[in-house]
C-alpha cells in the first residue's frame, strides 16, 4: 500500500495541516523492518518538514538513540528477531528517553494486542495503513507537548533560569566541548549575602523579587553562549564557555559591583543587596571537582567579608 501512494500528492494537504509552521523540525526516529515502508515514512515526514531518521534493523536502536537523540519515536510492532514492545522497553530503560513519545505503527488491528503494546511503554497506536495527515497531526501534537514539558522540566519556576539538574547537565556538556575544542571554560558560584536577614526584615515576597531581579541582571549582562542556573535557594551558577579566568573575573566583578549599587525598595524603605562569588577555571577535571573548587572559592569570598569575587 505505502509505496503505491505518491508522497508528492500529500504535500499540499500536509502543508495545510501544519499551517506552514516554522518550528524547529521535530527529530523523529522511525524503526520499521520493511525498507519500502521506512522509505515511504521518510518521504512523508520530510515533506511535513520533520527531521526523520530511519532505521530498519532493531539492533541499531541504541546507536540511533545516542546519535540522533529523537524527540519522538515511531515503532513498527513486528520485526524479525524482536517486537516493537521489546524495543519500547529498551528505550524506557534510559533516563533520557523515559518520557519521549513512542508511537506504534502497525497493521495489527486486534485492540487487545494494541492495548497490551501500549501498556508496555507506548503512547499511541496508529494502524497501518495510516492516513498521512493523521500521522503528521499526531507527531505535531506529541512533539509540541514533549517540548513544552521538557522546557518546564529544565527551568526553575521562580526565576526562569535553568534548574540545578539542568545546570549540571550543561556543565558536563560544556566540559566535553571545551576538551574537544581545546578552549578555556570557567564556572562561577554566586551566593547572596545575608539573604536570610533580607527575608526576615522585608519579607519573603521581597526576597523572591530580588532573586528574580538578580536573574534578569545576570541575563542582561552575560553572553548568549553563557549559561545561568539557579543552583539552590539564593545560589546561582554561571557557566562561561570559551572564557579565560582573568576575563571571567573581570566580568563577574563588574556585575557584582553594579548589582551592589542597585537600590532595592520595600514599600518606602530602601536598601542594597550584595553577593559573593567563587570562580574556578576548568583544569581538565570533572564537573564535580570544578564545582567543588568554585564552592571553596565562594567560601573564601564569604570569609573575606562578602561582596567580592575569589578566583
Ligand atoms: P550568607 O551571607 O552567609 O550567605 O548568609 P545568608 O543569610 O544568605 O545564608 P543562609 O544560607 O543562612 O540563608 C540563605 C537564605 O536564603 C535562607 C532563605 O531565607 C533564603 N532563601 C532561599 N531560597 C529562597 C527563596 O526562594 N526565596 C526567598 N525569598 N528566600 C530564599
Ligand atoms: Mg514489520
Ligand atoms: Mg546559600
Ligand atoms: Mg547567602
From TrEMBL:
Modified residues (4-aspartylphosphate): 76
Keyword Transcription part of the UniProt annotation: no
Names of required cofactors: Mg(2+)
Domain Response regulatory: 27-143
Coiled-coil region(s): none
Catalytic reactions of this protein: 2 GTP = 3',3'-c-di-GMP + 2 diphosphate
MF annotations from Gene Ontology: diguanylate cyclase activity
Alphabetic keyword roster: Phosphoprotein
Domain of life: Bacteria
Listed GO biological process terms: cell adhesion involved in single-species biofilm formation; negative regulation of bacterial-type flagellum-dependent cell motility; phosphorelay signal transduction system
GGDEF domain mapped to chain residues: 183-311
One GO term describing the cellular component: plasma membrane
Keyword Phosphoprotein: yes
EC number of this enzyme: 2.7.7.65
Stated name of the protein: diguanylate cyclase
Organism (species): Marinobacter litoralis
Lineage, highest ranks first: Bacteria, Pseudomonadati, Pseudomonadota, Gammaproteobacteria, Pseudomonadales
Residues of the full protein shown: 223 to 533 of 536
Amino acid at each position: 500500500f505505502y509505496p503505491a501512494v505518491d508522497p508528492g500528492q500529500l504535500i499540499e494537504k500536509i502543508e495545510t495541516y501544519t499551517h506552514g509552521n516554522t518550528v524547529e523540525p521535530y527529530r523523529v526516529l522511525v524503526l520499521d523492518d520493511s525498507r519500502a515502508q521506512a522509505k515511504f515514512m521518510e518521504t512523508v515526514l520530510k515533506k511535513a518538514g520533520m527531521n526523520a531518521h530511519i532505521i530498519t534493523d532493531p539492533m541499531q536502536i541504541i546507536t540511533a538513540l545516542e546519535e540522533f537523540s529523537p524527540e519522538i519515536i515511531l515503532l513498527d510492532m513486528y520485526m524479525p528477531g524482536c517486537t516493537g514492545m521489546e524495543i519500547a522497553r529498551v528505550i524506557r530503560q534510559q533516563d533520557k528517553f523515559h518520557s519521549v513519545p513512542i508511537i506504534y505503527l502497525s497493521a495489527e488491528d486486534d485492540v487487545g494486542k494494541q492495548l497490551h503494546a501500549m501498556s508496555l511503554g507506548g503512547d499511541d497506536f496508529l494502524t497501518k495503513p495510516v492516513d498521512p495527515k493523521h500521522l503528521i497531526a499526531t507527531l505535531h501534537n506529541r512533539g509540541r507537548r514533549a517540548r513544552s514539558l521538557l522546557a518546564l522540566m529544565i527551568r526553575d519556576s521562580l526565576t526562569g533560569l535553568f534548574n540545578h539538574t539542568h545546570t549540571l547537565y550543561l556543565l558536563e556538556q560544556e566540559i566535553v566541548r571545551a576538551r574537544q575544542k581545546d578552549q578555556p571554560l570557567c564556572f562561577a558560584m554566586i551566593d547572596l549575602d545575608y539573604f536570610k536577614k533580607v527575608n526576615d526584615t522585608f519579607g519573603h515576597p521581597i526576597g523572591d523579587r530580588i532573586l528574580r531581579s538578580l536573574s534578569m541582571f545576570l541575563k542582561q549582562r552575560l553572553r548568549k553562549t553563557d549559561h545561568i542556573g539557579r543552583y539552590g535557594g539564593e545560589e546561582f551558577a554561571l557557566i562561561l564557555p570559551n572564557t579565560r579566568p582573568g576575563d571571567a573575573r573581570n566580568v563577574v566583578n563588574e556585575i557584582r559591583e553594579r548589582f551592589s549599587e542597585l537600590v532595592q525598595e520595600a514599600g518606602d524603605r530602601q536598601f542594597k543587596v550584595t553577593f559573593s562569588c567563587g570562580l574556578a577555571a576548568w583544569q581538565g577535571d570533572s564537573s564535580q571537582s570544578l564545582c567543588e573548587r568554585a564552592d571553596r572559592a565562594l567560601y573564601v569570598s564569604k570569609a573575606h567579608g562578602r561582596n567580592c569575587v575569589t578566583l
